[in-house]
Amino acid sequence: MDLLELSSNVTCDVFNGLYLRDGFSVKANYSAVLSTYYSASVSTFSGPADAAQAINAAVAATTNNLIRQLVDAEALTDAVFVLLIVNKVFHKVVIEVDEKGTEAAGAGGVVGITSVPPSFTLDRPFVAIVWNSLHSVNMFTAYVASPAS
Fold first, then answer.
1. Does Lipoprotein count among this protein's keywords (predicted)?
2. Are residues 34 and 18 in contact, defined by beta-carbon separation less than 8 angstroms?
3. Per-residue confidence (pLDDT) for residue 113, from 0 to 100
4. What's the average pLDDT block by block, 10 residues per block, for the chain (149 residues)?
5. What angle do CA 77, 82, 85 make, to 5 degrees?
């Protein structure tokens, strides 16, 4: 049974969105999974003000303007970020005798401070290991004896 079809006096709306800084992208199959299973779209933004405006407009639209500001552009300005994940649920239940009902809205956002890693110089031999923590498996090991060559 679909949760959204349980009762005629219940309204539930869900919004999911993935926002990427211009110049970054996600693989097509990942975007398809987001769309198919989470009804999420992938959007791009040029900077903090652009990201905040787009996210706040989408959240306001799906909460009947109960939540108008989820993200503050100033708070995003100080961070070097490339990814924002937004989830929002709007829930309205008619429970009063006069059928005005009660509205509640909740929104959550995860600001992925997934920045481009800092650059560093490898000027001596090193070992690199890619470790799968979930399965405790070494996925890849590399030894570089002479980084200069």
1. no
2. yes
3. 44
4. 56 78 86 88 87 87 82 73 67 58 58 54 80 81 79
5. 95
Closest CA to 101 of 90, 112, 111, 109: 90
CA nearest to 143, candidates 125, 131, 130: 125
pLDDT of residue 102: 58
Residue with tokens 């405006």: 53
pLDDT value of position 78: 56
pTM of the entire predicted model:
0.57
In three-state secondary structure terms, 14 is strand
**Model pLDDT, residue 1:** 42
> What is the DSSP secondary-structure string of 75-107?
HHHTS--SEEEEEEEEEEE--STTS--EEEEEE
Q: Please name which of 105, 17, 110, 13 lies closest in space to residue 55, comparing C-alpha atoms.
A: 17
For residue 103, give Cα distances in angstroms to 2, 15, 64: 20, 17, 10
The three-class DSSP label of residue 114 is coil
